[in-house]
Specification:
462 residues; alpha+beta; Beta-Lactamase; Phosphatase 2c, domain 1; six-stranded antiparallel sheet; six-stranded mixed sheet; 10 helices; 26% strand; flat
Length: 462
């Protein structure tokens, strides 16, 4: 007698009873086993959820520790050592390292490695395209090899290796290096392993880029080069395309100033019919602001992945930022989730400029509910609020670079100027509304006005 174990709508196993002691199995026996199977499935599901939650907590703590180290040191060896140490705890490997690409010479050289015997270390330097490490450096794509003996690309530098995972260390589309992990076990790595390796590779990319910037500053004091690279880092955190959501016309734009600022926005796919909308502004400018923005983005995405309530996400991100940034730095942010099926926007405003909700009847609402800016206090609480969107409603999210613009007489464009322009152009598509609003802001400014970053998101209910 066998009964399937169904957990959360999926087959997770089978419970079987064999050779009843006192006769044949009956329908009553089957009914009893079905009832027990339901309880078994719940117990197994709960155990799996607990293990997953515990594993994710460890992963997030390790990511946070790496991010904290990244914010406090320019010693690349120290950061890479911590990255590999953390990966050993959550993914596991017997030999591994971070390799840097020297594109001009066509070389890939180890920056930091562990587990390789001294007599084999001479095999670690490779040419681009050589071995699995060289292939990833050339293709810019990660690879999982369950059995290295069956892959012609494998170059042995650790004879006991049976499986391998290799991921590019990229920033702004450029391959800076390669993160390589090798295991003595066959088929050691899977999709979850790759997600973690990619996350730590992103930290390695920032670390490597920061070290490069520091070296350039010491050598030439050319601040312009630092700012250009920091802008590239900032650009990698912005969405590459506008979201496609049935029933809505949504678009966002960021126009950076000449100096690197701390503006950020993103559209985050959560589940079907739910899209996260985030906009933020980091205090200060330059590379420190872009690094704080990187920490904010990483923390936000990590907490969203845990499926917490919006108010909980904001509280946890606040705690992480408070511990990882210097006192006096802060982030104003707005995070909301658009339920396009039910036409509900649920949000929390963390000290950010209040988004404007222009109703179809011309009335105005401000999305103000939430709490104070992030990283100001260690244990801040945040409220969340929901608004129902109707056809013709428009929400505009923005940073202070849009409203804090003065004309030749010292008057500020302000929220009133933004509302006036929004009402004038509300019938246009979202991207055209963006363009017209930016034209209005720039046309209002006096000739010698120094622009901050301009960031605008338009959410239009069709």
């Amino acid at each position: 007698m066998a009964v399937p174990l169904i957990g959360r709508g999926q087959m997770i196993g089978v419970v079987e009873a064999v050779n009843k002691l006192d006769g044949d199995f009956t329908q009553a026996d089957l009914d009893a086993l079905v009832g027990l199977a339901s309880q078994f499935a719940v117990a197994i599901d709960n155990a799996n959820l607990y293990r997953t939650a515990k594993r994710r907590a460890v992963e997030q703590q390790l990511l946070y520790e790496v991010s904290k180290t990244l914010s406090s040191t320019l010693n690349i060896d120290e950061v890479l050592k911590q990255i590999l140490g953390s990966l050993r705890k959550v993914v596991g490997f017997d030999a591994g390292g971070v390799f840097l690409v020297k594109e001009a010479e066509g070389d890939i050289l180890p920056a930091y490695s562990e587990g390789y015997e001294p007599e084999h270390e001479a095999r670690l330097p490779l040419k681009i395209g050589q071995g699995l490490v060289g292939w990833v450096a050339s293709a810019g794509e990660a690879v999982i090899v369950p059995d290295v003996a069956k892959d012609d690309r494998y170059v042995s530098a650790h004879p006991e290796t049976r499986s391998e995972i290799v991921a590019p260390v990229k920033i702004d589309g450029r391959v800076l290096g390669v993160l390589n992990l090798e295991s003595n076990q066959p088929d050691k790595y899977d999709k979850n392993s790759l997600e973690l390796v990619d996350a730590f590779a992103s930290h390695a990319a920032i670390s490597i880029e920061r070290a490069y910037l520091h070296g350039k500053r010491l050598e030439s004091k050319r601040i312009e080069e630092q700012l250009a690279i920091a802008r590239q880092i900032q650009a990698t955190f912005l969405p590459e395309s506008q979201p496609v959501t049935e029933g809505y016309d949504i678009s966002g734009v960021n126009i950076p100033s000449e100096e690197v600022g701390g503006d950020y926005f993103d559209f985050i796919k959560i589940v079907d019919y739910q899209t996260g909308i985030s906009i933020a502004d980091v205090s200060g400018k330059g590379i420190p602001a872009s690094l704080i923005m990187a920490s904010f983005r990483a923390s936000l995405l990590a907490e969203i992945r845990n499926n917490y309530a919006i108010r909980t996400i904001c509280k946890k991100v606040n705690s992480l930022l408070y511990e990882s940034v210097e006192q006096g730095n802060y982030v104003t942010a707005f995070y909301g989730v658009l339920d396009s099926k039910n036409d509900i926007l649920t949000f929390s405003n963390c000290g950010h400029n209040r988004p404007i909700l222009l109703r179809s009847d011309g009335s105005i609402e401000s999305l103000k509910e939430g709490g104070i800016a992030l990283a100001v206090m260690p244990d801040s609480d945040y409220d969340e609020h929901a608004v129902f969107l109707q056809p013709g409603d428009i929400v505009v999210f923005y940073t202070d670079g849009v409203t804090e613009v003065n004309d030749s007489e010292g008057r500020e464009f302000g929220q009133d100027g933004l509302i006036k322009a929004l009402k004038q152009y509300r019938q246009l598509p979202s991207q055209e509304i963006q363009r017209r609003l930016i034209e209005e802001v720039k046309g209002f400014a006096c000739r010698d006005h120094v622009f901050d970053d301009l960031t605008i998101i338009i959410l239009k209910k069709m």
